[in-house]
Design goal:
It is built from 15 helices and 21 strands. It is α/β, with parallel strands linked by helices. The protein has 2 domains: 207 residues, Zn peptidases (Aminopeptidase), CATH 3.40.630; 199 residues, Glucose Oxidase, domain 1. A hairpin with a 2-residue loop joins strand 15 and strand 16. The relative contact order is 0.16.
Length: 538
């Protein structure tokens, strides 16, 4: 009976602590991190350094212990920053209509991934569909093709499917992501790759591509002998019509061909000329990591992870006279939630069995580089990490009746998610854009790749007290007019009540995961199960 009384008392204390998680305390964190003073929290920039110092100070004030290098809160690593110059040129010759010249920003963007200050080449071109090599689906867009020294032209996305055994049905796999396209083209020896942009295949407009690819690109340093494209580019759909006209096709006609099994690459009668000039600098940056130790003598060596990225795009091309890309929703909001959850966890009167790791990661906008570095250099090994919960980009516009946890169902921790949803009266929302590959776009993906069951807690679709679809419309408007724009700024009229609930929801999932008798894993057949087994978890 005494053990039952103690368990009930412990549960009551825990739930009381969860209820102290406060949107009001998140607000000043978000306001400061999104202020002009921090100049968009650029990686390797003064504003980014200020952000990491602030986050470390908050961890210290609230009882999180340093878990970085040499007794600090900082896990340091270096990157290369490659900033494309406006003098970068892309043109093509050989078509019946004569030479083609593309306008920087308006019609194309691109960057060298070979990390050279100047790259210039002429190369033949070939259309390779989606640029996918996926033997498990009997699909190879490079079959019997030698593209060494050539430019490949392709689409993002992957062949459409409703069959869960073929590219997992309507949910995008990593094969559909732009980052995979460039990686695979480099593996096949291409010198350049040009992605034809369409809003449906990319799931965002050209304005997002333009703002993201015209500023500094952050890259891990190439290792000796590592393949990399001399030029990775995007062109608008309208500009692409001049490329596809060389074989008498429209871009949409080529997309239809690329979607069908049996597609074969099409040589293009074009020779592309590229002159890419870049400013290159070495950048020192850092993840910010705090630890709250668990109470069990053995299990305290295992952990749950809570993460959010601190970086945004820094200072970039002015839009309506504003050059500071503040990143208020993306992702000062997630950082505010992370800091508040860390405070609440450190304040628990009796700590959970496993430890908790709170990580504000760098360089998410550069390609999940900070979380990738942590995944390869973990404070707690992947095989001893129970779960990773990520928090990225929330809409502070009130409470939602549902929550997004896309990919959670792929893990054996999903019952914990369902329990937390029941406690907070939340419906688990289906992925609103399965073809967009949301799962592969945020930092939890870096943890999943090393085997850790991981997913993001995300805002839902339905705002309470509003007409059906109001939440989805709000996000759609944000995505169109403020995402990756200087207009993603803090507003005093923001309502943090929804973020408060989502933080409590994620906190409870992590809390229950930290007390499980055994470590969660991936469900049978999942693409990350092999990595989990390799990490030592059966």
């Amino acid at each position: 009976m005494r053990h039952v009384v103690l368990a009930v008392a412990f549960a009551a204390a825990v739930y009381a602590q969860i209820d102290t998680i406060s949107g009001a305390r998140m607000r000043p964190h978000v306001k400061f991190l999104a202020s002009d003073l921090l100049e968009g929290r650029g990686v390797g920039a003064r504003g980014g350094d200020l952000a990491t110092e602030y986050i470390a100070a908050q961890f210290a004030l609230n009882g999180g212990k340093p878990a970085g290098d040499r007794g600090t809160y900082f896990q340091n690593f270096s990157l290369l920053g490659v900033t494309p110059e406006a003098s970068t040129q892309l043109s093509a010759t050989g078509g019946a209509a004569g030479p083609i010249t593309f306008r920087w920003l308006d019609e194309f963007v691109g960057v060298t991934l070979s990390q050279q200050a100047r790259v210039e080449f002429d190369a033949d071109a070939v259309f390779v569909g989606h640029g996918i090599t996926a033997p498990e689906y009997q699909w190879d867009d490079y079959k019997d093709l030698d593209v060494h020294g050539k430019v490949v032209v392709l689409f993002t996305g992957e062949p459409p499917s409703q069959d869960p055994k073929f590219f997992t049905g309507d949910a995008l796999t990593y094969y559909g992501r732009w980052s995979y396209k460039y990686e695979e083209a480099a593996r096949h020896g291409a010198i350049g790759a040009i992605i034809i942009h369409t809003t449906p295949t990319a799931s965002y407009g050209w304005n997002v591509v333009r703002s993201s690819w015209s500023t500094e690109d952050l890259e891990n340093k190439l290792q000796s002998g590592e393949a990399a494209l001399a030029f990775a580019a995007w062109v608008t759909g309208e500009a692409a019509t001049r490329i596809t006209a060389s074989i008498g096709k429209l871009p949409n006609e080529l997309l239809v061909m690329a979607d069908k099994r049996g597609f074969r690459p099409l040589p293009l009668p074009l020779r592309f000329h590229v002159r890419a000039e870049s400013k290159i600098r070495e950048i020192q940056t850092r993840n910010v990591i705090a630890r709250v130790e668990g109470s069990d003598p053995q299990l305290k060596n295992e952990a749950v992870i809570f993460s959010a990225h601190w970086d945004h795009l820094g200072v970039g091309n002015p839009i309506s006279g504003d050059a500071i890309y503040n990143g208020a929703a993306d992702n000062a909001t997630g950082c505010g939630m992370l800091l508040e959850m860390a405070r609440a966890w450190a304040s628990l009167p009796h700590k959970p069995r496993r430890s908790a790791i709170f990580i504000a990661v760098a360089a998410e906008e550069g390609g999940l580089l900070g979380s990738d570095f942590y995944g390869k250099n973990p404070v707690v090994p992947a095989g001893k990490t129970a779960l990773a919960l990520n928090f990225d980009m929330f809409m502070p516009n009130g409470r939602y009746s549902d929550v997004g946890v896309y990919g959670a169902e792929r893990t054996t921790a999903y019952p914990l998610v369902e329990e937390a949803a029941r406690r907070f009266g939340l419906t688990i929302a289906p992925d609103p854009r399965p073809a967009a590959g949301i799962y592969y776009r945020s930092d939890h993906f870096s943890f999943a790749r090393v085997g850790i069951p991981a997913f993001s807690v995300e805002r839902g679709q339905e705002l309470m007290g509003q007409p059906p679809g109001a939440g989805a419309k709000y996000f759609s408007d944000f995505n169109e007019s403020r995402y990756h724009q200087p207009s993603d700024e803090y507003r005093e009229d923001w309502n943090f009540s929804g973020m408060e609930v989502y933080a409590r929801f994620g906190f409870l999932i992590g809390l229950n995961a930290s007390n499980l008798p055994s470590l969660p894993t991936w469900r049978a057949g999942d693409e990350f199960l092999a990595a989990r087994i390799a990490s030592g978890v059966k």
